[in-house]
Structure formats: C-alpha cells, structure tokens
Specification:
Strand content of chain A: 15-25%
Mean pLDDT of chain B: 90
Low-confidence stretches of chain B: none
Shape of chain A: globular
Helix content of chain A: 25-40%
CATH architecture of chain A: Alpha-Beta Complex
Number of helices of chain B: 2
Radius of gyration of chain A: 18 Å
CATH superfamily of chain A: Spore Coat Polysaccharide Biosynthesis Protein SpsA, Chain A
Helix content of chain B: 40-55%
Largest sheet of chain A: 5 strands, mixed
Number of domains of chain A: 1
Structural class of chain B: alpha+beta
Shape of chain B: globular
Mean pLDDT of chain A: 89
Number of domains of chain B: 1
Oligomer: heterodimer
Chain lengths: 231, 103
C-alpha cells in the first residue's frame, strides 16, 4: 500500500491518505479490505518519514491486520522498489509468490476486485484493473477534437491494486533502478522489463482515487450509500 | 469538530492547493480551498444524529478493543479525552447546526 506521495507538499497539513473518511483514515479503508482477502498474507504500508506517526496510529487503531511499515522514496517507482526489497528475502524463499500494489488514495477498492486481481495475477503473471474509457475523445490542437483513427474501445482507465508475480516484478524493478527507468505505475515497469502477460480485470467506478476535494465528499456518499461506515 | 488541512486539487480553480476540511463527527461538513477561496458546504444534520447514536452504541466495544491492544495508551489518554469530550461535542453540534442553517 503506497502512501508515499499522496497529497503532501511543503507546508501542507497532513497527507491526504490520512484524512478521515467516515471515522477512519482514507488509507485504512484499503488496508482493511486488502487484508481481508484470502491469500493476502501480509501488508506493507509505504509512507513518507514525516507520516510515520500517522502510519503507526493506523496500524494500532484502525487496522484489523498487522502492518509492516516502511518509509518510501521520492518517487512512486522508488517506493515500490523499496517495498519489494523489503519483501525480497521472503520472495526468494518462496514465502511470497504474488504482490498486489495499491494506492492508499483509493479507499473504496472492493474485496471482490482485490480477490479478482490476485487470482488473475496468479494465473497470468500480471493483472491490472481497468475501466473502458468510454466517453473520451482526443484533442487535435487547442480548440478541435481529433477525428478519424481513434478507437475508444482500446483505451482503459487503469486502477489499482495491480498484481504481479513477485520474483519477476522484483527483478524488473531492480533492473529498472539500474537503468534509471521511471514508469507511471507498476504495469509500465512490468511492460518494459518483463515478458509476463498482463491481463486486465474489470475495475470498479467506486474504486476512484481521491484527487479533487470533491472526491472526498463522493467517497463519503459512497460509504454511506453502501453502509460501509466503520463501527 | 475537527479541522484538517491537506493538499487536494480544487474543483473550482483546478489547482493543487491546501484545503481546509472541517468535520462534524464522522462527516465532512465543509471544504475550503486556500488557493482560490472556494467553499463547499454540506448539510450533514440528517445523517448526523443516526450516526451519533451508532457512535455511542459502539463506544464500549471500541474502548474494549483499545484496552486489549494497548492498555497503557488507553490509560494515558482516556482521562484527558473524557474531560474534553463535552466541549468537543458542543463544538461538533455547533458545526452541524451551522451546516443546517446554510440550507
């Protein structure tokens, strides 16, 4: 679970991953969901050094599962690499066969989606949730829409958690670090440095990332509508 | 009432800026962008009382879980939190009332 760079800037208040959502932090929602999935053995929570105290609070008060808290790097890619290195011994010994990498700012990932990604990653080697990007069109210059050779069916809005064979993705991240490659997400690094087929799993509209202030209100509405409020 | 500040993207000015988020109990009741000043207020009065009942009914269980997890932490924080609870509840009711009057 990556909370490394979520909503933190110099002089800002708290990382948005630790903003309360219906009584507990945004990050804890995803952690508790992922931790409840069959086959998920341990949770690694990657945070900024400044957020360690918040992370420990989540671990002690808001998580039903044991968390291994580590500090991340300056970039998402570096944080992912550090998380994989943290697991390297257990990956090498075969204790861990698959990893799921999830954004802390996506609190409403469902149990079903996480389980589906884990299953697909074990079957195929890699799995990424996505939603067909309907209703979008490319622009051609500042004022015009592009027309012609564009197939919206071929585009996806990619989400997390993204799942991969653990040994393969660890090797890929080590190679990417040596090359100085920086990808946009786990799948981009897998695509560049591995041959494993990455299958896609139907994502969920409610698995949105808290980016805009209004997303927090939307997440609150979803929690209320689905009766997910914490007890 | 709790107030938090965090960097979020503003729907009004579309800039990343610090936002002040005001909570009434477990509900966000107001968000203000410190960049452009845009304010979003929510009337949480309808949802607040049922949720407060649920918070009260679940309090013993939550305290018990904390006691089992870390008795020292609970013993050190509970007296201060108990003493400050009335004032915090009054402030919470005021926040809910302000959100109601903004209808």
């Amino acid at each position: 679970m990556l909370a490394g760079g979520s909503g933190t800037r110099v002089g800002a208040g708290i990382n948005k991953a630790f903003l309360p959502l219906a009584g507990r932090s945004i990050a804890s929602w995803g952690l508790n969901t992922l931790g409840s999935v069959d086959g998920v053995g341990l949770l690694v929570f990657v945070v900024r050094p400044d957020d360690l105290e918040h992370a420990r609070f989540v671990a002690s008060r808001e998580s039903a599962h044991h968390l291994e808290i580590i500090t991340g790097g300056d970039t998402r890619q570096e944080s992912e690499l550090l998380a994989l290195r943290h697991l390297a011994d257990r990956i090498d010994h075969g204790v861990i066969d698959t990893v799921l990498i999830h954004d802390a700012a996506r609190p409403l990932v469902s149990h079903g989606l996480a389980a589906a990604v884990l299953h697909a990653a074990r079957e195929a080697g890699g799995a990424v949730p996505g939603i067909p990007a309907e209703g979008i069109a490319p622009v051609d210059g500042p004022d015009a829409l592009a027309t012609g050779a564009f197939s919206p069916d071929s585009l996806l809005r990619v989400q997390t958690p993204q799942g991969f064979d653990a040994a393969t993705i660890l090797d890929a991240y080590e190679q990417a670090a040596r090359d100085g490659f920086v990808g946009t997400d786990t799948a981009s690094c897998a695509e560049e440095y591995t041959d494993i087929p990455v299958t896609w799993v139907r994502g969920e509209e409610t698995n949105f990332k808290i980016t805009y202030a209004q997303d927090l209100l939307l997440a609150q509405d979803v929690v209320t509508a689905l009766g997910l409020r914490s007890v | 009432m709790a107030v938090e500040e965090s960097f979020l993207r503003c729907t009004a000015c579309d800039q990343e800026a610090e936002h002040v988020v005001i909570y009434a109990g477990r509900f966000v009741s107001e968000i203000q962008c410190t960049g452009c000043g845009a304010v979003t207020k929510l009337d949480v009065s309808d949802e607040y009382l049922p949720d407060l009942r649920q918070r009260i009914s679940s309090k013993p269980g939550r305290l018990l879980r904390r006691l089992r997890a870390d008795p020292g932490e609970l013993a050190s924080t509970l007296p201060v939190r108990t003493l400050s609870k009335p004032a915090r509840m009054v402030e919470e009711f005021r926040t809910v009332w302000r959100s109601r009057r903004s209808r």
